[in-house]
Design goal:
NADP; Flavin_OxRdtase_Frp; 2 domains; Nitroreductase family protein; 10 helices; four-stranded antiparallel β-sheet; oxidoreductase; alpha+beta
Length: 258
């Protein structure tokens, strides 16, 4: 990736997922800085409705690796699970005599759920960017949601909380190539979404070829499947990542029907 003359922009343009870390701890000063950066991320209506659990227990790390089917999760020197968190706000509201289970209680409604989820993602991204800027490597862990119910039990998540994503951080012990991104014309539009589907995917063939020439360090003996093949496979995937969302959110006290 070319150097655009701005340190922050260059960090973002050169970010890549790191899945192998050196067996070296992250010092407390760096940890504090990363957590403070996450706290400075935008917050919808200033509700601060997210939290992050720093996982240090090897037993829990191993279980997260098992849930996510990714052994490297257990080896991450620094590991977080970000959650949307309206539990804390419910507790605070109750000190002001708001009934956290009343019909007029809205912190468990669908809008607040999605906004809290957004806030958690923004905080995670801020932390990831800061870590990359400090020369650390990261990988975002959506795989830990493969068994949401087990994850909720493992982390003892209370009512009005829900897991969003994990983030593994450490000193990189690999140097993967930058993974290709689709043409901007396929992802950035002006004023409205394209009405012509043919126009929408113009450039797909070239992108497929570019992706197919990329070699992922997780499987270095063969090129990655073309992007369109990956989409087609995931469009009918019946795996665990397609588990229904609603039952788990209901058990956590959320009302996504309102």
């Amino acid at each position: 990736m070319s150097d655009l003359g701005n340190e922050t922009v260059n960090v973002l343009l050169n970010r890549r997922s790191i899945r192998k870390f050196k067996d070296e701890p992250i010092d407390d000063e760096t940890i504090a800085a990363l957590e403070l950066v996450a706290q400075r991320a935008p917050s919808s209506q200033y509700l601060n409705d997210w939290s992050a659990i720093r996982v240090t227990d090897p037993r829990i790390k191993a279980k997260l690796a098992e849930i996510g089917h990714q052994p490297y999760i257990a080896t991450a020197p620094l590991l977080y699970v970000f959650i949307l968190d309206e539990h804390r706000n419910a507790v605070i509201a109750e000190t002001k005599e708001v009934d956290g289970h009343g019909e007029d209680f809205t912190l468990n409604a669908s809008y607040r759920f999605t906004q809290a989820q957004n806030d958690a993602v923004l905080a995670l991204h801020a932390m990831e960017t800061a870590a990359n800027a400090l020369g650390l490597g990261c990988v975002v862990l959506g795989s830990i949601l493969a068994d949401t119910a087990d994850l909720i039990r493992l982390l003892k998540l209370p009512e009005y909380t829900y897991p969003v994503l994990g983030l593994a951080i450490g000193k990189p012990d690999q140097e993967p190539e930058l993974k290709p991104r689709m043409p901007r014309t396929m992802q950035f539009f002006e004023n409205e979404y394209p009405a012509d589907d043919v126009e929408l995917i113009d450039g797909l063939e070239d992108f497929d070829n570019e992706v197919h020439q990329y070699y992922d360090l997780r499987n270095t003996d063969r090129p990655v499947d073309a992007f369109s093949d990956q989409i087609a496979r995931n469009a009918v995937d019946q795996g665990v990542l397609n588990q229904p969302l609603l039952p788990h959110t209901e058990r956590q006290g959320f009302r996504l029907d309102r």
